[in-house]
Amino acid sequence: MEIWINPACSKCRSALTLLDAEGADYTVRRYLEDVPSEDEIRGVLERLGLEPWDITRTQEADAKELGLKEWPRDAGSRDRWITALAGHPKLIQRPIITADDGTAVVGRTDEAVRDALAR
Length: 119
Known about the structure:
By secondary structure, the chain is of the alpha+beta class.
């Protein structure tokens, strides 16, 4: 299991606290320092069953600067969104937990973190 975190994020810290309390075996990836490649983002999206705009933090300054709210959300624009996430990792929703069964969750709630643990 791997968890993508921003240590400054309270949701990330809560997820780590819960994983530790449950005795989970996991690896931490500080994705702002160890930026995922476009292929890694594609892989996580597949595991999540989501599209890139579903995991984009559209209220971030970078998102506003790029005008992401106006970008089309369709198959033809998918790669453009992925490129933006790889180029501006602050835009990636956090924390993302990749479960041992090959799936992933956005662990913003205790329930989502427990769901990842159960997989």
